[in-house]
């Protein structure tokens, strides 16, 4: 089994209301130097077989990411 890490983030230019809420909360807490916050998700998969990165990529295309509004990256971690 191979550990594969998928990171899914909103595409640049796509409204990120969760990121805006976090940015506002940080400013309210005194962290005024934060100019942009994007909130995404990290998905860890244990995948068997010969091509775990390829399988994870297909999973992203079919289910894990909304390709209209999200970008993703696939990293084989171990």
Molecular structure report:
- With 78 residues, the protein is α+β, with helices and mostly antiparallel strands.
- The protein has a single domain, classed as Mth169, Chain: A.
- Helix content is 32%, strand content 29%.
- Strands 2-1-3 form a 3-stranded antiparallel beta sheet, with helices on one face.
- The radius of gyration is 16 Å and the shape is elongated.
- The N and C termini lie close together (9 Å).
Question: How would you summarize what this structure contains?
Answer:
The protein is an alpha+beta fold and 78 residues long. 32% of the residues lie in helices and 29% in strands.
Give a topology summary:
Elements: E1 2-10, H1 17-28, E2 41-47, H2 52-64, E3 70-76
Antiparallel strand pairs: 1-2, 1-3
């Amino acid at each position: 089994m191979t550990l594969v890490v998928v990171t899914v983030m909103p595409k640049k230019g796509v409204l990120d209301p969760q990121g805006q809420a976090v940015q506002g909360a940080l400013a309210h807490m005194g962290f005024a130097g934060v100019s942009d916050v994007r909130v995404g998700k990290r998905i860890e998969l244990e995948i068997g077989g010969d091509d775990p990165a390829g399988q994870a990529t297909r999973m992203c295309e079919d289910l894990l990411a909304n390709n209209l509004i999200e970008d993703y990256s696939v990293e084989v971690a171990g």
